[in-house]
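@channel anyone free to eyeball this complex?
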Amino acid sequence: MKRSASELALMRRAGKVTAAMLEAVTEAVRPGVSTAALDAVARAVLEREGARSNFLGYHGYPAVICTSRNDIIVHGIPREDEILEEGDILSIDAGAIVEGYHGDAAVTVPVGEVSKAASRLIEVTRQALWAGIETMRPGTHLHEIGRAVERVARRHHYGVVREYVGHGIGTEMHELPNVPNYWPGNPGPTMRAGETFAVEPMFTLGTERTRVLADGWSVATADGAWAAHFEHTIAVTEDGPEVLTLGSQGC
Ligand code: MF3
Ligand code: CO
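replying in thread with the prediction:
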């Protein structure tokens, strides 16, 4: 859906709050910290910024961020009894609502020193998100995003998760159309200036198949391989993509 200039201004604010949550949580990640403590850090940012959570209460979701460790791809629930260890990788997904408009973004970070394979997975997934973002111009077909994302994964022989995808975003966190991270066999609609999307590649060191754990939320790789997830909320503009959830480090 096309957004007006004033709507985009609110999405910029929601994006900034989302980025601030991710930065504060990333800063707090270290061995010995519980994922519940990270949720508390994100809640404090929402409160300070006077923003609301789009995660809390979403289909009953109990936290303001998702914390997905190692073989968990997305939707891990923060817990008091989940303590980060050196060598883990942690995906953090955060979002915020400002005056009815949504931001949604995610990063994967290393906990202390991690293996070469894990840090390469993280860096390549980040690169793939940016390769997807670079296609986002008026007149380009939406599924070019996934084609660009998938190309990066294939070069590194990573699994590309297909069962979860990016999405339109605006007055709801999840709006149509879907934004797959692969070429779905057709080009999809063309992108237009003023449209806003959440692009979110999920790559794995093994299979692309997933399973939901007994908590009803956590999505794990079917084979236990580790996974990385990056996401930004982006507006298509006449000048190209505007990343609304950019952090102060510019990534
Ligand atoms: N923000 C996630 C996404 O990237 C969805 C979070 S689901 C929730 O689409 F239940 F945790 F909110
Ligand atoms: Co999303």
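from a first look: The pocket of cobalt (II) ion (ligand 2) is lined by residues 104, 167, 198, 200, 231 (CB under 6 Å).
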